[in-house]
Specification:
Blueprint lengths: L1 H4 L5 E3 L5 E3 L1 H12 L4 E14 L2 E13 L8 E11 L1
Antiparallel strand pairs: 1-2, 1-5, 3-4, 4-5
Length: 87
């Protein structure tokens, strides 16, 4: 799915400033991140897509629900932040 979604030199910039470049790094980062959760639910809205010749920059709003499972008193947490994807 990563190869169908991103160009080979795509960059994913996370809210904490961490950058993943390329299919392998993007997929590895997502696998590590999602391994923490028993379940997740994500909703993305308000896409802004800027095109500059052969480059596209996408900004979205993301609301994410994460079920950590192993923390009974905090089994679900709600996060809201903006993502920036460039390819």
């Amino acid at each position: 799915m990563v190869g169908a979604t991103f160009t080979p030199d795509a960059q994913v910039i996370k809210p904490n400033g961490a950058i993943s470049i390329g299919h392998g790094n993007i997929l590895d980062g997502q696998r590590k991140s999602f391994a923490r959760f028993r379940a997740t639910h994500h909703v993305t809205t308000d896409y802004i897509i800027d095109l500059d010749r052969d480059k596209a920059t996408v900004r979205t709003n993301l609301t994410a629900m994460h079920d950590f499972g192993s923390y009974p008193s905090y089994s679900s947490m709600l996060f809201s932040f903006r993502n920036l994807f460039s390819s």
